[in-house]
Amino acid sequence: MKNNLKVARVQVNLTQQQLAEKVGVTRQTISLIEKGKYNPTLKLCLEICYAVNKTLDEIFWIERESDKIAKN
Amino acid sequence: MIKLQKIRDERLKMKNLQNIRTAYILQTIGILGILAYDWITKGIEGMTKNPLWFVFILTAVISAFLSLDISVAHEDSEKSPNKGLIVSLAVLVLISFCIGYLNTLGEELNLKNGFILGGVVFICGLIPILYIYYLRKKSNDEHSDEE
């Protein structure tokens, strides 16, 4: 799933490794989340949000395709 | 040297479980293969004498019990668990009585054997019935919390 984690992480000057240590997972997991290849649990999403000082919707919210089309 | 430590990463925990599942499948295939070999070479009796037979039956029973939890979660009926318990108990008593009674017939009157066999059937049936009752009761309580 697409998300804005990479941007948020760079904004607070954290490397993948540092973020991984903060939230207690491996660097590979952070990398996979950023690429949208791993679907994290809500608990991990919250931990990540606390670490980068963002809310859940700022990082993980994506609009429904049908809503996007309706807006345009 | 590989450092062994407790896995904290949720993704790796999941991966680990998937690996265990793969190993379990392979192990079961292996056990079935050995039992099939015993069956062909030594017949049914030779197969059941193998301790692997006991392991196989035990894991089959355990997995059946564990999957009851899932079957109960799938049920969406609103019927009360008490009614289910009473019906299953009645059926179980009938079945174990019939089996016990049928066993007393035969060449000689064998009352003791009938009691023992009926009792064993009753106890073996009672355990899963009580477990299902407990699971249904639990899911019912969780359901009523929602309202």
List the main descriptive attributes of the protein structure presented here.
heterodimer; A: 72 residues; mainly alpha; 434 Repressor (Amino-terminal Domain); 6 helices; 65% helix; elongated; B: 147 residues; 2 domains; 84% helix; transmembrane helix (chain B)
Provide a brief overview of the structure:
The complex is a heterodimer of chains A (72) and B (147). Chain A has six helices and no strands.
Q: How would you characterize this protein structure?
A:
Chain A: GO terms for molecular function: DNA binding. Chain A: Keywords: DNA-binding. Chain A: Residues 5-59 form the HTH cro/C1-type domain. The complex is a heterodimer of chains A (72) and B (147). Chain A is mainly alpha-helical and 72 residues long. Chain A has a single domain, classed as lambda repressor-like DNA-binding domains (434 Repressor (Amino-terminal Domain), Orthogonal Bundle), CATH 1.10.260. Chain A has six helices and no strands. Chain A has helices at 5-11, 16-23, 27-35, 42-52, 56-60, 65-71. In chain A, helix 2 crosses helix 3 (27-35). The longest helix of chain A is centred in the middle third of the chain and has 11 residues, at 42-52. Chain A starts with a helix and ends with a helix. Chain B is mostly helical. Chain B has two domains: 7-74; 75-141. Helices cover 84% and strands 0% of the residues of chain B. Chain B contains four helices and no strands. Chain B has helices spanning 10-49, 51-74, 81-104, 111-146. In chain B, helix 1 (10-49) packs across helix 2, helix 2 packs parallel to helix 4 (111-146) and helix 3 (81-104) packs antiparallel against helix 4. Chain B starts with 9 loop residues before the first helix and ends with a helix. The interface between A and B is small, with 11 and 5 residues.
